[in-house]
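Lab notebook, bench 4. The sequencing result for the construct came back, and we need a structural model before the next group meeting so we can plan mutations. Quick request posted to the team channel:

Model the 3D structure of this chain.
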Amino acid sequence: MAATVAIQKNEYFKNYYTKLRTRGKSHTVAVLAVAGKLLRIIYSLLKNKEKYDPNYHYKLQKSRTESSWQLYSK
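Done. Here's the predicted structure in token form:
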């Protein structure tokens, strides 16, 4: 299953899986959640004709935290 390999090889999916497991989700539920997230990413890439960037989610998360800090600093 692609989700299992993504959990093993990709840091983003590994962190997402671990977060779900620490919240008390079962292994099966966590793997299916990763599979759904992976499916949405693949669909978006195909729809927008883009290539996969493994650092995209970290860049997005960083920009969101920076913009939220800007809201509080004003």
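The mean pLDDT is 86.
Will bring this to the meeting.
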